[in-house]
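testing teh design pipeline on a random one, pls ignore if ur not involved
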């Protein structure tokens, strides 16, 4: 349970959206291409990709490299070999059916209508070629044809092969209870064991069944005979009942109910597999590229007692070692990390405060590995006010021949606010250094005061003026 928790620790709503969105795209691709050979090829690529990932985790460098090469070549081969199938999927779908809806395969084929029509065609010696696909798509092996969407009826089927009909040449494809295309050119068989009286119509039927799982019915124009082709087998059909029996075997008994249930299970399984695959990809990206980084973050002290002040802290910044997915780590801005220490329980003097995970706020998806230092010494003091006399801080030497008679600060004293410990030993406050070197006559210098330690503050921030009186040295 714990490893699973680790895998999903720091899981963000963005990740959930990411996974759901891409799972849906994968599921839609399956829905659009199911029943075609493209989906089988894509599944093979998925298996290769999983094998490649397994090779990476086992450290099999050459195997992984080979897998990647094979996947690249396979992707190109799919596009080239299945271009007809891919383009037929894109041509027959509008935007809505790309994004939404599940085209149900129509399983209920009125076999009796087909059997009656074939028999009627045979009796009239009208040549016919009828294709009933099963699971495999035909687009990659057939050519030409006109797309139709006509409801199957004996009249339509018989009239389609009527010699005067412009679409009588080629094959008719039936899916469910619809005639979906006519005038389709099938691949010719190269088999040598077919009877010599089989011309191109029969060879075309055999050719398609050699490459797909479709069933093809041929009505001979010359002999008025019916021949059925399926999985490389050739069946000489003597009566209508035998034809219907073979058609039923092809479609499967009770196909309607089984089909709908089967499709629902198939789609739920496809949805779950899509979710599983994309979650796996997300994990391999987000956890596989786990990286470490160090950030130095300033400590923020919260809830201080207003009557106290921080005199010193053993460190003002804390080093954090963090880990997470490389893209997340790279995207971190320092202001997204906060360290807050609560001073509400602190007392005057030295306080040892521990820095724990609870004090640190990290962006989602980032984990904390190390805190350095994990303990701070914070010295606090009670704030007091003290009146201190101002002392000018002279430096250098007066020029020859002059002396300073008097110097006084205005104001004479200032009120300093600071910690009681810091102010205890301070009896004077000095100005910044004032150079004596160029003072030849009396005047006023405006100066700042030096606050040492820096935690001291002045009650009023007025500038200090030093009035000095200079006179000539009496000549002896
Ligand atoms: N590759 C093909 N795909 C689809 N239909 C084809 C193909 N080749 C031939 N046909 C159809 O077969 C007809 C020609 O039949 P042909 O007489 O050569 O064959 P056959 O097997 O002897 O049939 P039949 O016994 O009816 O004469 C064409 O007019 C055309 O409708």
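output:
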């Amino acid at each position: 349970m714990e490893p699973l928790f680790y895998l999903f620790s720091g899981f963000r709503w963005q990740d959930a959206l990411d996974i759901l969105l891409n799972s849906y795209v994968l599921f839609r691709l399956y829905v659009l291409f199911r029943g075609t050979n493209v989906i089988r090829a894509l599944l093979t690529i998925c298996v290769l990709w999983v094998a490649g990932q397994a090779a990476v985790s086992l450290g099999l460098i050459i195997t992984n490299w080979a897998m990647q090469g094979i996947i690249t070549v396979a992707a190109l081969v799919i596009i080239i070999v299945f271009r007809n199938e891919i383009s037929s999927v894109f041509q027959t779908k509008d935007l809505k059916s790309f994004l939404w809806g599940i085209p149900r395969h129509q399983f209920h084929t009125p076999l009796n209508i087909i059997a009656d029509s074939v028999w009627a065609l045979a009796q009239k010696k009208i040549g016919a070629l009828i294709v009933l696909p099963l699971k495999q798509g035909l687009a990659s092996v057939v050519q030409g044809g006109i797309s139709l969407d006509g409801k199957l009826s004996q009249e339509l089927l018989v009239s389609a092969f009527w010699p005067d009909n412009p679409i009588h040449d080629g094959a008719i494809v039936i899916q469910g209870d619809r005639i979906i295309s006519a005038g389709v050119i099938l691949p010719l068989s190269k088999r040598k064991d077919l009877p010599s009286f089989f011309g191109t119509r029969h060879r075309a039927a055999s050719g398609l069944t050699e490459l797909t799982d479709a069933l093809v019915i041929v009505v001979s124009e010359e002999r008025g005979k019916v021949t059925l082709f399926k999985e490389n087998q050739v069946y000489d059909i003597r009566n209508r009942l035998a034809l219907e029996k073979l058609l039923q075997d092809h479609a499967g008994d009770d196909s309607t109910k089984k089909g709908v249930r089967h499709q629902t299970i198939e789609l739920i399984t496809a949805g779950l597999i899509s979710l599983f695959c994309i979650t796996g990809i997300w994990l391999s990206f987000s956890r596989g590229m786990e990286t470490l980084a160090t950030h130095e973050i300033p400590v923020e002290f919260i809830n201080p007692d207003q009557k106290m002040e921080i005199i010193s802290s053993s460190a003002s910044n804390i080093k954090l070692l963090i880990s997470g997915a490389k893209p997340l780590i790279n995207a971190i801005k320092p202001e997204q990390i906060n360290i807050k220490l609560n001073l509400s329980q602190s007392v005057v003097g030295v306080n040892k405060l521990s820095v724990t995970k609870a004090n640190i706020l990290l962006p989602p998806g980032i984990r904390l590995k190390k805190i350095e230092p994990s303990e701070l010494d914070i010295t606090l003091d009670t704030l007091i006010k003290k009146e201190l006399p101002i002392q000018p801080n002279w430096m250098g030497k007066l020029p020859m021949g002059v002396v300073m008679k008097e110097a006084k600060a205005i104001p004479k004293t200032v009120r300093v606010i600071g910690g009681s410990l810091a102010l205890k030993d301070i009896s004077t406050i000095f100005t910044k250094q004032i150079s004596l070197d160029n003072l030849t006559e009396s005047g006023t210098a405006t100066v700042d005061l030096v606050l040492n330690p820096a935690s001291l503050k002045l009650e009023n921030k007025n500038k200090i003026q030093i009035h000095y009186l200079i006179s000539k040295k009496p000549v002896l």
